[in-house]
Amino acid sequence: MTTRFEPSHFLNRELSWLEFNQRVLDEALDAGNPLLERLKFFTIVSSNLDEFFEVRVAGLKQQIESDVVERSVDGLTATEIFQAVTRRVRKMVSDQYACWRDDLRPALAEHGINIFDISTLKRADFDWIEEYYHSKIRPVLTPLAIDPAHPFPQLLNKSLNLMVRLEMKKGRQTLKHMAVVQCPAILPRLIPLPRDGQNRNYVFLGQLVGHFLADLFPGTKILGFWPFRVTRNSELYIDEEETGNVLKAVETELHNRRKGDAVRLEIDQECPEDLRLALLGTFKLTEEDLYLIDGPLNPTRLMTLYQGDHSPELRDPPFVAPVARALRDRKDLFAAIRERDILLHHPYENFNSVVEFLEQAAQDREVLAIKITLYRTGGDERIVGALMNAVSQGKQVTAVVELRARFDEANNIQWARRLEENGVHVVYGLVGFKIHSKLALVVRHERGQIRRYVHLSTGNYNPTTARLYTDLGLLTCSPDFGEDATNLFNLLTGICQFQGMRKFLVAPFDLHARMLALVEREISHAKKGLPARIIAKFNSLVEPRLIEALYAASRAGVKIELIVRGVCCLRPGVPGMSENITVRSIIDRFLEHSRIYYFENACQAEVYIGSADWMPRNLFRRIETVFPIEDGNVRERVISEILAVSLADTSKARFLGPDGVYHRALPVNGDSPRRSQFEFIALAAAEDPRPAGTTKGRAKYPPVKLVSSPFGGRLKPKKS
User: Are 556 and 523 contacting, i.e. CB atoms less than 8 angstroms apart?
Assistant: First the structure.
């Protein structure tokens, strides 16, 4: 029986996601941010929108076209959601391109970063561009005619293309023609000009190709050209029950994704209406799917301007994360872990410690086996190398690889095969469930007995994203954690039923029920007049039963503080329903990614961290692991440092209102604004033993000060 929910209790998921992307755009609009950091956020807005159309809008279109008509939990039909999304995206895209034209591009030019119109180039620059075109660009271009003998070409997802209108004389007749020129993804979208001096000067690839179209269509007159690109449905559809080989099935679906149904057409706003309508018809789209662009067609490629070591004055101060204090100067990581549980806070503490944990396990003669879940590694050479090296050392190595990590599938297939070829036992997980747990198990023989070392995390085994995402990791040799990790890997690689765990909460088996029970316990305490409080930090809050449970807790008097980076379908601050709930979102230099769950439990606080958000996909369609922080010192650090500083942010935090609109947090009582991520950097720098001169820009961060803590008392740096 389907549970019925009151639609007015919920915000729409798609519209909430768009509000998240608006908060990203707000960072690009914020003149208080360094210029290149604003540019970075500007490009992320487009990258986010691309994925939103490829997955969420594509899904809405499929619902609209299906025979099933139903309402979402917030009471809207797919058509109503699509129409609301279209209105919201149009406003966002308009604001984004106004930001580029009126703000970012002029500001970049003031600092010597220019994108020139090819017609304005000096003679020497034009001569260089012409040579560059003939030597580097022209050989890889393919002009494609469109006529009865040449049907419209199959264009790749998000590829840059030029729609060309031209005419050619044939006898006494002048014939008009259409053609398409595809710009291969291998070509840079910004071509740097080789000028002397400090300036960085570029021309757009699309304009460069357009300028030399007559060379591609000799004997014709070019009447005009207009850049465009089409976005396609990029979700994978695999029926694992009917698939004997998951690896092959994913490869096949990746091929199909490249030519999935179109969901959006973006084209230069100067394109004539008849051509726009012709393209819409070709892609079986309507004018609702059309976005006229006044600026660069794919702003994501503007990240070229951000990359490199130029213009440090236009960036946030550099930060090199120190090694966690508990591991500093410890050559034997296993000995350090035996002494106590170790919490790692990335990117403020160096992720190399995790890589070294795997490398040391690979070399250690006493290590018998290594098991690891891999979701997005980026194919890191050190991690993959450590696993392969362990095999060469005679150890048993198992990697549970999730091939369907969205948009990383091709990369995962490549290095999964490499691992297999080098003797690693690669497993593709459970049928029907994505493997999203972040878990490594090292089995070691010590003094005649087996000891198991475990690393659990909220983030992936990816050193690149570990410098950009905020995540928590735990290194422990707790026997209970070792037994749970062993049983979980047996579940993932063998044939067995879930039998429950000593400490772990595992989706899709018991995580949802256990979280509901923890909320219910806080309700019970509140009704008895005992201290009751819930703090949860995660990426998304969507699951309706947990949302309703939080409403019930609020009505019972439980104080609830949620830190939700992205989608939040809960309405806070509604009288009689959620007046005891606050929701804030922090968008800053690093992507907030850690998941933390705090339950007051009548002054016997329990803290859990893990891989799962409160979303249906995490709770019911993925293998997720959430685990308790049992070491008192580690738990106190999570509470009094990480949660306290996050809750005190008045610089980058925005508060969600019951109407779904976010408002910036403001300091109270004349306090100075607090920026949680910079405070975490300052905490790390305060305990960094390296001389100040060895860490670029370190002195630019404010020193650590004693500050008020939302948990009472005074907050100060904790020793790890």
Answer: yes
- Residues 35-56, mean pLDDT to the nearest whole number: 96
Same domain, 634 and 704: yes
Positive or negative, the Cα torsion across 458, 348, 475, 385?
positive
- From the candidates 436, 512, 525, 593, give the one annotated as an active-site residue: 436
Q: What pLDDT band is residue 51 in, cutting at 50, 70 and 90?
A: very high
Residue 541 and residue 453 in one domain: no
Q: Is the predicted pLDDT of residue 245 greater than 80, yes or no?
A: no
The residue length of the chain stands at 720
Q: Are 328 and 689 in contact (CB under 8 A)?
A: yes
* Structural domain span for residue 457: 325-493
- What is the distance in angstroms between the CA of the first residue and the CA of the last residue of the chain? 49
For 582, other C-beta atoms within 10 Å of its C-beta total: 16
**For 579-599, how does the pLDDT look when each residue is reduced to its tens digit (9 = 90+)?**
999 999 999 999 999 999 999
Q: Is 332 found in the same domain as 306? A: no
The CA angle 618-621-627, to the nearest 5 degrees, is 45
Judgement on whether residues 21 and 120 belong to the same structural domain of the protein: no
Burial class (CB in 10 A: 0-12, 13-18, 19+), 39: buried
The answer to whether residue 425 is catalytic is no
- Return the sign of the alpha-carbon dihedral for residues 86, 87, 88, 92: positive
Where are the extended beta strands (E) located within 30-184? 113-115, 142-146, 160-170, 173-183
Domain boundary among 314, 346, 380: 314
* HEC sequence for 212-267: CHHHHCCCCEEEEEEEEEEEECCCCCCCHHHCCCHHHHHHHHHHHHCCCCEEEEEE
Report the alpha-carbon distance of residue 375 to residue 400 in Å, rounded: 9
- The two beta strands, 469-476 and 591-592, are parallel
What CATH number does the domain containing 138 carry? 3.30.1840.10
| CA–CA dist 74, 90 (Å, integer) | 22
From CA 698, how far away is CA 409, in angstroms rounded? 38
Instruction: Return the structure tokens found at 465.
Output: 């994203």
Q: Are residues 53 and 162 in the same domain?
A: no
pLDDT at site 497: 87
Residues 387 and 398: their CA atoms lie apart, in Å, by 9
CATH number of the domain to which 36 belongs: 1.20.58.310
Same domain, 157 and 76: no
Contact 49, 41 (CB under 8 A): no
Nearest to 535 by CA among 512, 558, 517: 558
CA-CA distance, 534 to 522, in Å (whole number)? 8
Q: Examine the pLDDT at 544 and tell me if it is beyond 90.
A: yes
Name 601's Cβ contacts closer than 8 Å, sequence gap at least 6.
Answer: 521, 522, 525
The whole-model pTM stands at 0.90
Cα-Cα-Cα-Cα torsion 255, 63, 659, 663, nearest 10 degrees, comes to 10
Give percent above pLDDT 90 in the chain.
75
439 and 521: one domain? no
